[in-house]
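Hey, resending since the last one bounced:
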Amino acid sequence: MSQNKILIVEDDPNLLTTIKYNLEKDGYDVTTAIDGAEAVETAQRERPDLIILDVMLPKMNGFEVCRILRKEMIVPILMLTAKSEETDKVVGLELGADDYMTKPFSMRELLARVRAMLRRTRMGEVPPAEKKTLLRINDLEIDIARHRASLGGVALEFTPKEFYLLVFLVRNRGLVFNREHLLEKVWGYDYAGDTRTVDVHIRWLRQKIETDPQKPKYLITVRGTGYKLEG
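The structure tokens again:
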């Protein structure tokens, strides 16, 4: 089995070296970029399995890099930010990042996030015992094996986490899940802090599968608890 290829985009040479060393020690094939323009070029050329992307970069910031790459590929993106403001985190998620980490962070946590993101990317989150790979709810159709979905025959485009979140909820339709449970099951790790990641992904899913996202008929908010999928 080939090594997973990871692209690190970071302009701090010390942090870049540290992350690269730890990822290579963990068995990954690592390539790097030190500015936004180089990041886009390297990602297009190397087609990595995962991108670790800093927000504050020369030439082109991480938000713009994320926006460009998300239009071209479905690679998981983990954004790094040195800021604690909620706005920066939400902007990254809304541009298509799968998750974020705020500096400073431990290498142990970073490696755990990377492992979880890559693990959840394989096979579209399909449990080994689950044979059914074509799911339908009314006019919504999901082809897990081909990583495709359509609504009324019209193809939909999802980021990896949007797709996996939708698959999980469809498989468990009618059941209510809180945000922490969704982070554990879909993102693949315990998450004791901010759960805004889930809210942003739910909002984006609604914009893609609901006729009226303000009055959803599929993705329902259960006040004080979490979310469920009806249909």
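Residues 127-229 form a domain with the Arc Repressor Mutant, subunit A fold (CATH 1.10.10.10).

Sorry for the duplicate.
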